[in-house]
Amino acid sequence: MCGRFALRNPQQVKEKLSISTSVEPRYNIAPGQKVLVTDNNTHFIKWGFTPYWAEKPFNLINARAETLAEKPSFKNSSRCLIPADGWYEWKETNGKKIPYFLHLEDKTFYFAGVYGGYRGEVGCAIVTTDASSNLQNVHTRMPCIIKSDEHKFWLEGKDINTLDTSIGERIKFFEVSTYVNNPQNDNERCIEI
Q1: N or C: fewer beta carbons within 10 Å in the chain?
Q2: Residue 126 near residue 111, CB atoms below 8 Å
Q3: Could you tell me the residue range of the domain that residue 67 belongs to?
Q4: Terminal Cα-to-Cα distance of the chain (whole angstroms)
Q5: Which of 2, 80, 144, 190 is catalytic?
Q6: What was the pLDDT predicted at 163?
Q7: How many beta carbons lie within 10 A of that of residue 35, not counting itself?
Q8: CB of 74 within 8 A of CB of 63?
């Protein structure tokens, strides 16, 4: 699962995607907020997906890669990439949930995502998969990270199982303070111990 993430260095994304608008550093991106996505164009859309046919909002924030093609919620969704340079997971230890920050040093990467419109608002969900063996101790799920040379394949509809997602084996993590638990906190303190 991925319930919060960061884009601490948006300059890398601005250069890669040739974005001319302002993109501010974010340390605690939470569901319901606007997030930067790309599908060959860049957009800011809500993190929370509801299929167009729903009677009321679902606001799904994650979509399991294993069932993406089967679930009615995602069958007609479009694909996108969501830039990030880290995400948070909470591990239960002795009855307490301890937050961890997972990252690839200061490198930007892209989560596989899906998006669609619901009553005039476009929303997205992050596609997740089983966590890499090096991350299983923190959480059993993780976002699908798409390598840069396979971005177009994901956007063109290739099955996630045919793509190289081994980048997860290089992810590192460390414990952070519970300051990140409050989604209103969005500064460097979120990634401090």
Answers
A1: C
A2: yes
A3: 4-191
A4: 22
A5: 2
A6: 80
A7: 27
A8: yes
Q: Tell me if residue 80 is catalytic.
A: no
User: 116-150 burial string, b = 16+ CB within 10 Å, else e?
Assistant: bebeeebbbbbbbbebbeebeebbebbbbbbeeeb
Cβ atoms of 115 and 81 closer than 8 Å: no
Find residue 42's DSSP bridge partners: 38
**Number of other residues whose CB lies within 10 A of the CB of residue 86:** 24
| Residue 2 is among the residues annotated as catalytic for this protein | yes
115 contacts 91 by C-beta, under 8 angstroms: no
The radius of gyration computed from the CA coordinates of the chain, to the nearest angstrom, equals 16
185 phi, psi to nearest 5 deg: -80, 115
d(CA 191, CA 193): 7
Length of the chain: 193
SS3 57: coil
Q: Which parts of the chain register pLDDT below 50?
A: none
| Number of compact structural domains in the chain | 1
Beta strand 78-84 with 109-118: parallel, antiparallel or unpaired?
A: antiparallel
Tell me the two tokens of residue 40: 């060959």
- Which of 15, 66, 80, 89 does the annotation list as catalytic? 89
Taking CA atoms, 76 is separated from 45, 117, 122, 190, in Å, by: 18, 10, 13, 36
